[in-house]
Amino acid sequence: MVHAASKRGLNLPDAPQRRNTMSWKTINFILGLAATDPAFLQLLRDNPQQALTAYKLELDPQELAVLQDISADTLDEYARQLVHRLGPHRKDT
Predict the structure, then answer these.
(1) CA dihedral 41, 79, 23, 3 (to 10 degrees)
(2) Considering the entire predicted model, what is its pTM?
(3) Cβ proximity of 70 and 78 under 8 Å
(4) What are the tens digits of pLDDT across the range 32-64?
(5) Is 7 within 8 Å of 18 (Cβ atoms)?
(6) Are 45 and 78 in contact (CB under 8 A)?
């Protein structure tokens, strides 16, 4: 699976075929976009698939399921849940 360039021209890393964690670069991109674009944050909360598609981001089914399962009132809480559930917990990621 390949993370395509976003509308803003930022390239995300190629994702390994099988993995248990989302890369820090991908997490930071999603959270940075959510912090600077209120419409993206709202769409991310309401319909993660549509939010990611709008920026040509592709996640594997496990990652997408986690995003769809997050319930948070604030960006801070959203970020905590995302990092806890998908953040790379190993130094090699």
Answers:
(1) -10
(2) 0.66
(3) yes
(4) 999 999 999 999 999 999 999 998 888 888 888
(5) no
(6) yes
CB 44 within 8 A of CB 51: yes
> Residue 77 carries which side chain, given as an amino acid letter?
E
Per domain, the residue ranges of the chain are 33-86
Contact 60, 23 (CB under 8 A): no
Torsion angle of the four alpha carbons 93, 13, 1, 49, in this order, in degrees rounded to the nearest 10? 100
Tell me the pLDDT tens digit for each residue of 8-31.
Answer: 444 444 443 334 467 788 888 999
Residue with structure tokens 């964690």? 21
- Residue pair 7/56 in contact (Cβ under 8 Å)? The answer is yes
